[in-house]
User: Fold these one by one.
Assistant:
Number 1:
Amino acid sequence: METVSLIREIYREAFRDLGHFLIRNYFKMFALFSLAMFIVVLYAFIFRLATGFAFD
């Protein structure tokens, strides 16, 4: 019975750490993606200003 509880505790700790790992990496990738999209928007806006686009 003690062996079963030890195995259960090992799996519980492993999946708890795995969840934090996945969530942390997901938010890192989301932050990088958001930064890249913001840079694209800034580039497009500056390009329009430089070429004399009429903002009507």
Number 2:
Amino acid sequence: MIRKAQSAMEYLITYGWAILVVAVVLGALFSLGVFNPLTFAPRANPGSCQVFRPYGAGTSTDINLAGVCNNELPKFVSILEASGQHVYYSINSLPLLSSGNVPWSATLWLYDPSIYATGPDCIAFSYGWSSWGDIPEYDGFALEADHAGTYYIKTSGGAIGVGPVFQSKWMFLAATYNGLYINGYDYSSNSMNYVSVLQSSTLVPALEAFIGWDGHHNDLCSASIANVQIYNASLSPSTVNSIYYEGIGGAPINLQNLVAWWPLNGDSQDYSGNGYQASASAGPFYTSGWSSAYTPP
């Protein structure tokens, strides 16, 4: 009996460290997403899906999706900060709004590891500049995820904040003339003054729109972003939910009102067929190593 116990102890001493090392390696690989089935899912190449407008940019007759548009995961997503260098995208003369109060919608996917950390807030998308704050600016709106974990829409009429936003997880953020959404849930229903704030804003045609910046303040994102869609209509809650449930690689749904679509899947081209290409301020930076951070709806 003593010999068997001694043999068992010798076995554990000899192979125990090896078993521990294997366990640690497997745990590290799991945390990196190596065993995540999404790691091996098909990836859509840049430009594999786009809107076809047979009568040219700005037309809506007989428009349709062309290419492989089965909501595969994108091969790349855009990183707005790499090696201490920030990048944002600017779009000149995006004709989203006419003078006055008109319907609009903006949807995008955001992954921000700096939420709840000290640092600048992340302006995920801005149209024009809003007259919000102490500096008079052009009227417009901005979608912001701040470092305190709140998702805001800011306009010249004020700011509405809802939450929560999530650290180091992909989030689907959407704002419309009638709603403010995180992962498909309309948080504006909890804010009685959401519509009144928008209706008090006098929106004007923007000189520029930005992805990852507000065009004025130094709030540059340290986040990743993908699949930015802009519409000249206020999407219904069911439509917003449909876009959300398509996932991060989903194509636009309301093609008749689609103004611009930047998948940011390896390039900054506008795949809406309207030709509003986004210009990167630096880089740009894209990564294919993002799947472990993605939790599908």
Number 3:
Amino acid sequence: MYITQVGAECAPVAKVGGLGDVIHGLSRELTRQGHQVEVILPKYDCLRLELVEDRQRVCEELRVPFYDQWLPCRVESGTLDGIRCCFIDPDSDHGFFRRGRIYGEVDDPGRFAFFSRAVLEFLLKTGRQPDIIHCHDWHTALLSVLRWEVYEALGLDRPRVCHTLHNPAYQGIAGEYPLRAAGLDPARLMTRARLLDQDNPHAVNLLKGAIVYANAVTTVSPRHAWELLHTEQGLGLQETLHIHGHKFHGVLNGIDEDTWSPRTDPHIVHSYGPENLPGKARNKRHLRRRLGLAEAAKPIVAIVSRLDRQKGVELMGHAIHYALGNGCQTVLLGSASEPWIEELFQKIARQTEGNTDCHLALRHDEELSHQIHAGADILVVPSLYEPCGLTQMIAMRYGVVPVVRRVGGLVDSVFDANYADKAFEEVTGFLFDDPTPEGLESALGRAIRLWFHYPEYFRQLRLNGMHTDNSWAEPAQHYLDIFEAIKA
């Protein structure tokens, strides 16, 4: 099958969060299974192009409509970890992708509307006719609309579109200008049945347009699909998702087990696996030395996360104090998304200054992230909502026992040691329901007590997680089944 992946990110060349990991991991797995896969990205000025091999120009004179202009673009291709990638580079005073970052510009709806149109123009002009165009999040949502409203009549009639909702908190809500910029008719499209936002009669909702126009719509876990349909987590999309429910699926993400493997990880000091857990103890000692923690018979409770309100930052703070008060050491790694969150953790850092049982690293640090997973015993993921989550899967791969809230993909990937309806060799962590200090303590307390009082049971939980298959093999097959069902 010929599959074109289109998104704003692809790790490691363009990564802000989990979206980049998903596009990279899924594309690698589909390629590994013998499918023809290419990823199309904007050519940001902040791309890590040194990671791309065999770079070459594949299209010198692509012209893309934008309002009443035709803007010239060049397209380069190369290979990233065995994946064929194309990078669209507009030559324009707008400087769409020359901002020094991927997101966060006031004209993001216009930038990505242009990108969506440029992708289809590139496919048309070069004679590419993929079986599937797989689009991701709101940034590429307009591509589904353009595919059927414009490019079907121009001859790009083979591709079917699958659109994946990674984080519906961001829907691409704007005035009508992205439609005009991309050459679409606002009067035709800004209706309740199409792209009109439910709450604003003067706004277009790009993500809603993708749900309406795509042949298949997915989100990143079965539980989150249910939440989007039946709870306030649908964030205004519930009605549209119910109308188009026949094409809506939840597919749990995987992790790239080549990138995240304690047997081969170049960032950790001692390789190990389920057959060699003493290697994990050596990584724990190294982590303590690196972060200035005392050598002691205590578990390390870790948090590795974006510090964002979605992730439950107040509960993270409570987890640090609770763990310290119950004989543990704590490590946090993450960068804050808002000033008040930065101040929250700076305050905790001041309160714990000089404490050899606590270290807060308020930044992004890829190497340290790997080393924390290799050295920690317990990982806390107290998200208020979590479409899928990858860190709990990574934790299990590294023999860390996750403590997570019972939401989204956390429910689909972590099974409670005390309450899951599964055999003991299949349980992997601890879950809690209420997003409160008491709820968190109900799970974290069980994990800590198990470490101290029943070390053999705790060891078995580690091993259960390490033996769990969270690779992309099964999710990729789910996607292939969806692709086959909608393929022309």
